[in-house]
Every structure is written in structure tokens, then in C-alpha cells.
Amino acid sequence: MSKSNGTQRPIRDRMPQLQDASLEEGRSERVRILMASHRTEACLTAPAPGREHVWKDGVYQALSLLRASLGEASQRGESAGGLIAELKTAGGKYYHRVDRLQQEFDEMIRRCDATIEHLRSQGDGESIDYADIRQRVTWLLTSLKHHQAREADLVYEAHGLDIGLGD
């Protein structure tokens, strides 16, 4: 708000501050997803033979944490004010790329949910195909890395901002 007359400044005047806030939120979100991904990878690579159910529980918990992080990112991405959402509402050149990224992200969430449900549905007496679970989750994590790279490229191309973490 302007101190002199109580009105709000036009958005173009506030854009640098909005971009800075959105950039910081985006980086924090990417850090949460990265940490959850690393935890999931660590659980996946733990030895499974002879301790399948302990292994499955660790993967389930880590994947649930990753899913929560993805859900937060999805909610934030759909809200106004995000760097990506801003590109879609602007239409034009970036609209279809943003739309594809959103569809891709939604599909990753569905696959994550399906894998969590698969892990949840396996009882203690059932054998666990840990190789299959590793393959499913590794595919998900790889897809997520590629998605984040395409997202970072798009934001850099459109805004000149680096949202990467440099890991």
C-alpha cells in the first residue's frame, strides 16, 4: 500500500518483490522435495532380503514424505503468484509448456499414490517383490529430476531466474 493515499501500487511496480518471494518459496519447496527424494533413495538402496517387511515400511514412510512434499508443491503451483502459474495465466508462448509440466507433475503424483497404495496393501504374510518396487520408485525419482530440470529451464528462459539448487 502506498503510504500517501492508502492505495496499492500497480503489480508491475511490485514485480521484483513478488518474484523474489516466489523464487525463495520455490527454492524451499525444491529443497523439501530433494530431501524427501534422498531419503527415499536411501531406503530403496537398503538391503531387503530377509528383512523385506522392515525394508517395505522404510520405503513406505519415505515415499509418504515425498508424496506430502509433492502435494504441497502441487497446491502452491496451482495458486496465483507462483513463477510457473504466472507464465500460464499470461498465455502465449509458455502456456502449453506450463500445461505439459502440470500434467506431468499430476501423473507423478498419481504414480506415487499408486506405489504407496501397493505398499500399503501388502500384508505381513505376503512376499514382497522389492526389485519391482525399486524399479517403480526409481522411475518416479528419475521422472521428478527431469521434470524439475525442465521447470528450471522454463523459469530461467521466461524470467531470467535460476531456481536450481546446484546439487
Walk me through this protein's architecture.
With 167 residues, the protein is mainly alpha-helical. It has one domain: Four Helix Bundle (Hemerythrin (Met), subunit A) (Up-down Bundle). It has helices spanning 11-45, 52-78, 83-89, 95-121, 130-159. Helix 1 (11-45) packs antiparallel against helix 2 (52-78) and helix 3 (83-89) packs across helix 4 (95-121). The chain is elongated, with a radius of gyration of 20 Å.
Summarize the structure.
With 167 residues, the protein is mostly helical. Helix content is 75%, strand content 0%.
List keywords for this structure.
Four Helix Bundle (Hemerythrin (Met), subunit A), 167 residues, single chain
Fold blueprint:
Elements: H1 11-45, H2 52-78, H3 83-89, H4 95-121, H5 130-159
Helix pairs in contact: 1-2, 1-5, 2-4, 3-4, 4-5
Order of helices and strands: HHHHH
Q: Strand fraction band? A: under 5%
Tell me, rounded to a whole number, the average pLDDT: 81
Gyration radius (Cα, Å) is 20 Å
Compute the number of strand runs.
Answer: 0
Helix amount:
over 70%
CATH topology: Four Helix Bundle (Hemerythrin (Met), subunit A)
> Could you list the spans in which at least 5 consecutive residues all have pLDDT below 50?
1-6, 8-15
Instruction: Specify the structural class.
Output: mainly alpha
- CATH top level class name: Mainly Alpha
Can you name the CATH architecture? Up-down Bundle
Domain count: 1
Please tell me what the overall shape is: elongated
How far apart are the termini?
A: 38 Å
Distinct helical segment count? 5
How is the biggest beta sheet arranged? Answer: none
Region (Disordered): 1-26
Protein name: Hemerythrin-like domain-containing protein
